[in-house]
Amino acid sequence: MAPIIKKGSVVSILILTAIVCASFLFMFLTAREESGTMDELAHIPAGYGYVRYFDYRLNPEHPPLVKALSSIPLLFLDISFPTEHKSWDRDVNGQWDAGIEFLYHSGNDADEIIFWARILPILLTLISVFIIFFWARELMGPWWALIPAALFGLSPTILAHGHYVTTDIGATLGVLMGIFSFSSFLTFPSRKKIWIAGICFGIAELLKFSNVLLIPLYGALTLISFSAEWYRNRENESYRPMRRLWFYGKSLAGIFLIGIIAIYAVYFLFTLHYPLDRQLYDTTVLLEGFSPPFLKDLNIFLAGNTILRPLGEYLLGILMVIQRSSGGNTGYFLGEVTNVGWGHYFPVIFATKETLLGLLLIGFGIIAGIWSVFSSAKQKMRLKRASEYIGTHIPEFSMIVFVLLYWMWSLNSTLNIGMRHLLPVIPLMYILSANSIKTFIESRSEWKIGKYIRSILIFGFIIGAGIQSFASYPYFLSFFNIFGGGTTYGYNIATDSNYDWGQDLKRLALWKKEMETQGIIVEKIAVDYFGAGDPEFYLGKNHVERWWGSRGNPKEENIEWIAISVNSLTQAFAKETEGFQMKEEKRYEWLRELRDEATSGMANIPLPDFRAGTSIFIYHL
């Protein structure tokens, strides 16, 4: 039997390797084709400032690790950084202007910088695929583990955000590392695992501030694990509950302490040449009006202390996230525009941007799980059985608790800007669902064809995931399933990082060249662009006129073409929710008058004459 298992493991590793190679190839090619996305305009110069100058003055509202790692390849390029520009020298967190200067106005090759900065996020994504597989393999064997690995590694959403210089894939990797290491500690506690869990916790917090949810998760899991252990051993006279509670408590404190030390070390490095008086001033300005005041005062105190200022910079990031979340974010969703968010946003986004294969897996997994629960209920499942389940299934239980916690947090969030904020729970849902289906099939001993069903499911999901990726290439960011109108019309559901993040500006330049090959000369084009690119950089300074809605029809200035990001269009034509009013300069009423007879779905956008990629609509006036 051993040789068969070994052979099966080898074959599964080969299939995993093929999945990883395909994932890498898709992201690598797309990274070369796309222009910079909105958040990359801030993250790339910030990361370069960290690793080149050990200065954290840019983009403090996000932790440093993804940005810093992404900038390591840039150290080997011959590029200049605008340290004398006001965005670095005088402005408080002048991240956006610094990005424009660094990428487009300093004599650098912007495409080269953006491409090489994306290499490390791609590697982080591939590491996540490996972790998913090897963790799932421990729970359900090598063959079933291929399903979550394939669905994650070949998901259009992952292939999109997995190659961007943002913290979203970092959040996913941090959650995987954090829950995997902590559940491993709870399963078989040891001093070594305390250190591993502590380091992984620190890394998770350095990847994304939302990973602070690991703190209540660890606390809840510790209490539940101890309670289950006590219940199982309550009649054992040699069992010492207070001693065990003390052990769990000091272990948890040790994990958090190790994590804080890791956070301090990294922030210490990246604030090494950040002038103390400048950090104190920046912190004071950025937290002006922050409530409650005692947190602001604590942060200002830490920022002004030579020893504690790395922790002050970390706390500043967390407070800025809180400040931004409370303020909301203007966005479009299902025909409406507002800045306070929608309670049903994330469920709808998940249902329309998740692949059909992913929805099928999760749906079947939930049904199989409910079936198992009812089967156990028939067998009079009691507290003892529940405590035994927790004791023997800590990894699965940990994932379930985090998924529930994260979804509760997401449903109450007003920061409704994309499917990317759900990335941390997606691999966990894949693993749990695949494991639930596996358990259901294997419990049906009367199914003589059970192994054939397993093979069909496993290879069906892998092949289906690959086909979905090929079908979506190269427009991974704009992917919507058929429930959301598909990639072509998904903007009717939502835009921003769900559909239009500025990734198609290079494709606008390609469109212009293609038109010229057909004998149509686009001498000048009005451009209303949402993203990190610079239209003049790609189209030529003399061929672009920056535009916005209230400027009216460009034809009045002898410009016959206008290109508008669909993110701007959806907000311009959407219905305003009560209490919200769109800025007048963003409206395009004159375009509605020209194209009122042709609109596209609930977004009510005039249909374009051409498209650059999926997200830039081009009108011939």
Structural overview:
It is a single chain. The protein folds into 3 domains: 2-32 and 121-324 and 339-443, no CATH class; 34-117, no CATH class; 504-620. Helices cover 61% and strands 5% of the residues. The chain has helices spanning 2-33, 40-53, 65-71, 86-89, 95-104, 110-117, 119-140, 142-153, 156-161, 168-187, 191-207, 214-232, 241-270, 276-286, 293-303, 309-327, 345-353, 356-378, 383-392, 394-411, 426-443, 450-472, 486-489, 505-517, 535-539, 566-573, 589-594, and strands spanning 331-333, 336-338, 525-528, 544-546, 561-565, 575-576, 599-600, 605-606, 610-612, 616-620. The strands form 3 sheets. The protein has a 5-stranded mixed beta sheet with strand order 4-3-5-10-9. Strands 1-2-6 form a 3-stranded mixed beta sheet, covered by helices on one side. It has a two-stranded antiparallel sheet with strand order 7-8. Helix 7 runs parallel beside helix 21 (426-443) and helix 8 packs parallel to helix 22.
